[in-house]
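Quick start: what a row looks like.
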Amino acid sequence: MQTRPALLYQGILLGLFINGIARWGFDPVLQTPGALRGDAQHNSKLPKILQPSIALGMNVSTISFNWLSPFPDPMDGISVLVNDVERFRSYRDDKFGSDHFEWTRNSSMAEPEYFRFAYMQATQTWDYTKAGIWHPDGSWIEMAPGPSKIKRSEGDKLELTRNVI
């Protein structure tokens, strides 16, 4: 038997459901937990990067990174972002796998470059380190401890920006 309070509660619940579908679509109902996580942190292990070696030249400067190997289980590779673009992947069982990464840039470049490192497991890339900064004068600012965070930019924009420090 339908009573007035029951009809009121059903109307409120139906309104909330329709409002949710109007705002977010059917995605939350259909998405997997992994898809809902998106770019959120995984609280995974971070690579230990040794102090880089820097070679400054008249025309070309080079920075070379080494990391501790072997990778901890179950990780089997490493990924390197330069200025938030993936530039290198190496797996432990590659024939030509490497335990170092070298980046070269034109000495006339006046902007700093940002480096982040993450472990990989098969094709899954886990948390990246916070950015280490290579300045045009050749100085290196070490990566702060902890993973990179992604935050919304100011205002109601839906663009995502990475924290540099």
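That is the whole record. The longest strand covers residues 113-121. Confidence is low (pLDDT under 50) at residues 152-165.
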